[in-house]
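Quick question, first post here. What does this chain look like in 3D?
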Amino acid sequence: QVQLQESGGGSVQAGGSLRLSCAASGYTGSSSYMGWFRQAPGKEREGVAHIWTSTGSTYYANSVKGRFTVSRDNAKNTLYLQMNSLKPEDTSMYYCAANYASGKVWGQGTQVTVSS
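> Answer (accepted):
Ran it through. Tokens below.
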């Protein structure tokens, strides 16, 4: 069974940077896509950045375009999210997710807090 483990969250001041990682373990057959989502208290979960395996195509939410970069290291089965120019509104729990043949898998999340 595939498991996803996020890391790299923390507290930073506005304008700062963080790099999130999501390591896949267990059965690590090919995933069709991997992505980052976030959910703040009282708000719905939203997609932040995704990357598709077959094409390398990426998607970014308008709110993070130009500031966040999603990438993956297939050899390490790891997904990354480089977050620059962080804003207080980026404060949220960040989750990674991946689509495998057996279904969608979610990580436990890592907290990002940006202070003004």
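DSSP finds no helices and eleven strands in the chain.
The longest strand covers residues 92-100.
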